[in-house]
Amino acid sequence: MTETAAKLRNKVAVITGGSSGIGLATAQLFAEQGARVAITGRNQAALDQAVAQIGHGALAVAGDVANVADLDRLFATVHQQLGAVDVLIVNAASYVLAPLADFTESMFDRVSNVNFKGTFFTVQKALPYLRDGASVVLTSSTVAEKGVPNHAAYAATKAATRSLARSFSAELLPRRIRVNVLTPGPVDTPVFESVTASKEEAEAAKAGMGQFAPVKRVATAREIAQASLYLATDDSSFMLGSELLIDGGIRTL
Ligand SMILES: NC(=O)c1ccc[n+]([C@@H]2O[C@H](COP(=O)([O-])OP(=O)(O)OC[C@H]3O[C@@H](n4cnc5c(N)ncnc54)[C@H](OP(=O)(O)O)[C@@H]3O)[C@@H](O)[C@H]2O)c1
To answer: pTM for the complete prediction?
Structure first.
C-alpha cells in the first residue's frame, strides 16, 4: 500500500475486541491503510499475539467493555498515546446461546452486559476523545431481524445495537459524528469454537451456517473488514444512522 493510496493515513482507530476474528481482521486492514490502531480485549496473551500480527505500532489496552472503569482507562490511554480518535469500531461481543427454557440469569446478564451495556458505554466513554467528524461503527448481526432458536437474548442485544446507532447518530449530528451499523451474516471466526465442544463441531456448525446463506458459504473476516473500512472513511460520508448488510443474501433472498 503506497502512502498516497492509504485510506486512513494518520487516523487513529479504536477497535474493541480487536484480538480475534472480525476485529483482528479490521485492525490489520486499517493498519495497512495507514491508521494508528488501538485494540481491546480481556485476554492479554491474545492481545500480545494480535499486536504482533497487526504490526505498524498497534497499541493494545486490556479491559472488559462491560466495565465502565475499564472503558474510561481505555480511552484515556489511547488519547495519551495516540491522540484524538477518528474511528471507533464497537465490535466486542459475547455469543451466549441456549434454549429459552435453559437460559440462566447469569447468561442473560453476561450477554446483555457485554453486547448492550458495553456498546452503549463504549460510545459514551469515547465522546470526550472523539474528533468532530469521526466515524463510529456498531456491530450487529443478521439474527437481529430473524427468529433463530437459541439466539433470543443475543439477537435482542444486536437489535438494541441497531437502535442505538439511530439515536446516537441523531444526538451526535452537531459534532458531525456519524454512527452506522455493520451487520454481518455468518463469518469464519474463532467464535464457532467458543460455542461448540470441539474443532470438528465448530467446522460442522460453520458449514451448516454457510448452507443457510443463499451464497452457500460463510464470509471471511476480511470481507467484513472491507465493509468496515467503507464505513470508517469519508467514502460513506452520506450514510448516517444507517446499516450496511453483508450477509450473503440471508435477509433479502
Ligand atoms: N462470527 C460471526 O459469524 C458473526 C456474525 C454476525 C455478527 N458478528 C459480530 O461480530 C463481532 C465480532 O465477532 P467475531 O466472530 O469476530 O468474535 P470473536 O472471534 O469471538 O472475537 C471476539 C472479540 O471480542 C473480545 N471480547 C469478548 N468479550 C469482551 C469483553 N467483555 N470485553 C472486551 N473484549 C471482549 C474478544 O477478546 P477476549 O475474549 O480476550 O475478551 C475478541 O477479541 C461481534 O460483535 C459479533 O456479535 C459475528
So the answer is: 0.97
